[in-house]
Amino acid sequence: MNDSKDSNDPLPSLNALRAFEAASRHLSFRRAAEALGVTEGAIGQHIRGLESELGVKLFERRPRALILTDNGQLYASTVRRAFDLLIDATRAIRPQSLKIAISVTPTFAAKWLIPRLPDFTNMHPGIDLRIVASDRLSHFQSDGVDIAVRYGSPPFGPGLAADLLFEDVLIAVAHPRLLADQARDHDRFPDKVALLHDAHSMWPQYLTRVTGRPGTLDRKNIRFNQTALAVDAAMEGQGIALAHPAFVSRDIAAGRLVRVGDAELLTGAGFYIVTPRKPVHREPVATLREWLHGQAASALSPVSS
Question: What are the residue boundaries of the HTH lysR-type domain, all occurrences included (predicted)?
Answer without folding.
Answer: 12-69
